[in-house]
Specification:
mainly alpha; 11 helices
Length: about 200
Amino acid sequence: MTSRPTADAFVAELADLFTRLGDQRYGEGVSQMEHALQTAHHAKLDGAPPALVAAALLHDVGHLMQKIGENAADLGIDARHEHISAGYLARAFGPEVTEPVRLHVAAKRYRVAIDPDYLERLSAASLQSLALQGGPMSRDEIDAFLADPAAEAALRLRGYDEAGKAPEAEVAGFETYQDLLRDLIDRDASDAPIPDIR
C-alpha cells in the first residue's frame, strides 16, 4: 500500500508541476497556470470554503499530467482530465476537494442540458471539448448527477472555471495558496481511517 505523502511534499510536487508545465495552453486565451489561479481567485471572491478553493486551483491538473499533449481535443481525443486530476489529488486530499474536481466536466454537460443560454457563453475550446465529453446530459444522466452529494460544489466550481479565462488578469500567485493546501492535506490525513494491519 502506498503511503500518503506529507503536506509539504505534496504541495512541493504541485508547485513543481505548475512551474514546469503551467505555461501550457489548451485552446483558451490563458495558460494552465493563469487559468488555475483565476479559477481559485473567483472561488475566493465567492466566499467558497477552503476545500472548494483548492478544487478550483487544482481542477485541471490532469491536463498537465496526461501524455497526449496540449492539442488532444484537436486530435478528437477526450483525455478525461477530470478523472486524472481527481485520482492524482486523492493521494493527499479528501473528497471535498476531489469530488467537485471529478464532476466539473459533468457539471458543464448538465448546465448545457438545462440552460441553452449557457451553451452560447462557452468558449470555442470548451465547445470543442463538450462534443468529445458526451454533449448535453440525457434525462437519466441529469438525475444521476443531481443525486451526487458533490453536485452543488461541482456546479459552483464550473462557474469559477468559466470565469477563469481572462487574458492578462492580475491575480495572486500559486504560493499564496500553499498554506491552505497544506492545512487541507493535514486535516484530511487526520480524518483518514487508520488501516488495519493485523
